[in-house]
Amino acid sequence: MVWLGERRGDLVDWVTQRWVQVTGRRVALADAPWLAGPWGSVNGIGADFFARWGESNGMRVLPPGPDDGLVDGLAVLAGPGFDPQAVDPKIHDFYTHTAAYDLRIESRWSGPFRAVGWLIARMFARRLAQLNMPLSNRELRGGFESRIVRLVDDTGQVRHTAWVRTAVETGRPAFVGEYGTTTIPGHAGPCIKVVFPLPNGNAIIVLRPRVDPNAGLSLVSDGRRFGDPGFYFTVLAEPGEVWVRWVRTMKEQLSLQVEGDAIAASHRFMVFGLPFLELRYEIARKSEGHGDRVSVAG
């Protein structure tokens, strides 16, 4: 890789950021607060990103709790098209007390897309220690270490909640992201918002909630235009402004259904309408004495 200095970073990252700038639009965050989120340095992200970022922004990390959750219940997503009371209580409990659950996971790549995933891993993910999609179930053999990270201000109020997952087999951070809710112009009601910090910017996924048959829940990024649920790259332009590229061709859907005492989940990713990766989860309450281990199924 070619290093361009502490301001621009690696050549590949710099070119990607210029693509966002040239093909996207410049937006003031005051006009689009749903596009605000933590951005990373050119030196990479890593599992300790939110501790470092929080300290540099006057916040501190709360000690981890056994019942920490990603959101304060699905009631925060109530809106004209979504009734949270129609979702199974076990799914509510998972989002409210995420740290109390174990997840068993397997990955399924579609044909030639595995090679694309390998290329992205070599060029970006492994170097940045971020968005390391599992390329095979061998990488998942030892499971994931999973942590909920909560940042509080000097009054003790929680300002940011992150979910950090690291592959035990490789030691590589897989997903280092902030989780919360937001409202956007293209959807009538709150959505889930996930922010993955990247050099000089971030990737933002906005997912609308949907009640499925049998009291299931889906989170869907299927928008048709800028401002809809979807996938957004942002690059810092100057304080208070970002360049934004909405990636029209990227879609994803996370679907959860209760099966007995556990929750079965399927997380599907598509590009140009073609499925390229599916992550399957079995989610269950931890047995007493279990640690924060996410293990692979099968």
Structure notes:
The protein is of the alpha+beta class. The protein has one domain (11-296). 15% of the residues lie in helices and 41% in strands. The protein has 4 helices and 15 strands. The chain has helices spanning 11-23, 49-56, 89-96, 113-128, and strands at 25-28, 60-61, 101-109, 144-152, 158-167, 173-182, 191-198, 201-212, 216-221, 230-238, 241-246, 250-259, 262-271, 274-285, 293-296. The chain has an 11-stranded mixed barrel with strand order 3-14-13-12-9-8-7-6-5-4-15. A hairpin with an 8-residue loop joins strand 6 (173-182) and strand 7 (191-198). The longest helix is centred in the middle third of the chain and has 16 residues, at 113-128. The model is unreliable at 288-298 (pLDDT under 50).
When the domains are counted, the total is 1
Distance between the termini: 37 Å
The ordered string of helix (H) and strand (E) elements is: HEHEHEHEEEEEEEEEEEE
Q: Number of helix segments?
A: 4
Tell me the overall shape. globular
Helix content: 10-25%
Query: How many strand elements?
Result: 15
What do the pLDDT scores average to?
91
Strands in their spatial order, largest beta sheet? 3-14-13-12-9-8-7-6-5-4-15
Biggest sheet statistics: 11 strands, mixed, barrel
Bin the strand percentage.
35-45%
Spans where pLDDT lies below 50 across 5 or more residues: 288-298
Q: Which class of secondary structure composition applies to the elements? A: alpha+beta
Q: What's the Cα radius of gyration?
A: 18 Å
